[in-house]
Design a protein that fits this description.
212 residues, binds adenosine-5'-diphosphate, 5 strands, Rossmann fold, binds magnesium ion, alpha/beta, five-stranded parallel β-sheet, 8 helices, 50% helix
């Protein structure tokens, strides 16, 4: 039996890293073997692809951007996620296939079916056991963290963010084991909701890697 794959999704600054770390520590304390990783990136090659993707000065065209995300995902899935799951570990990943559908599909307008096909190729059919989709209202966007315009995606305008947010809502509604979480709430309430969802899906009682 394999470990469990938990994915955190949502726009920039909705609290994915914050919740991923809280969840990581929670599971470690419970005695699980846990891998915390992220996309794009997660392995040496995939992190190098991430650098290209997040450099604002590079004029990466939409289809090239999509293929770079999928290349990064293919490497990350094969090299890190699947081996960890096979060893019975819990894998927590910030962003996965839903981000690509939301950003490159809903927001940039690339064909969603094409993205589904590429996601399937990159993941070899691996799907999360639980997908947590964090959405916050736009009014919180610029108040969270410094507004640095640090990379290309963060510079996109409000219309882009609205399409992407609507995309996440549609995707969460049609994806198995996916939940929308209210990211305007305080950090601890959100963490409690995350733990409830893990329990609901028997993620913590079924994982085989739990140390005795
Ligand atoms: N529930 C929350 N309420 C208020 N601020 C938050 C909350 N969750 C995260 N933050 C803050 O918002 C910023 C972005 O959070 P982060 O976890 O890095 O988001 P992401 O990984 O989705 O980009 C950080 O400064 C973080 O401390
Ligand atoms: Mg983050």
């Amino acid at each position: 039996m394999r470990g469990k794959f938990i994915v955190l999704e949502g726009p920039d600054r909705c609290g994915k890293s914050t919740q991923a770390k809280l969840l990581y520590n929670y599971l470690l304390e419970k005695g699980f073997d846990v891998v915390l990783t992220r996309e794009p990136g997660g392995t040496k090659i995939a992190e190098q692809i991430r650098e290209i993707l997040l450099k604002p000065e590079l004029d990466v065209r939409p289809v090239a951007e999509l293929l770079l995300y999928e290349a990064s995902r293919a490497q990350h899935t094969q090299e890190k996620i699947i081996p960890a799951l096979q060893e019975g570990k819990m894998v927590i990943c910030e962003r996965y296939t839903m981000s690509t559908s939301a950003y490159q599909g809903y927001a940039r307008g690339l064909d969603l079916k094409m993205i589904d096909t590429l996601n399937h190729i990159a993941t070899t059919g691996l799907t999360p056991d639980l997908t947590l989709v964090f959405l916050m209202s736009d009014k919180y966007f610029s108040s969270r963290g410094e507004y640095l315009f640090s990379d290309r995606l963060e510079r996109e305008d409000k219309e882009f963010r609205d399409s992407m947010r609507q995309g996440y809502k549609n995707l969460a509604a049609k994806t198995e084991n996916a939940y929308l979480l209210e990211a305007d709430d305080d950090v601890d309430s959100i963490h409690r909701r995350v733990v409830e969802l893990l329990e609901k899906h028997h993620i913590t009682d079924l994982c085989p890697s739990k140390k005795s």
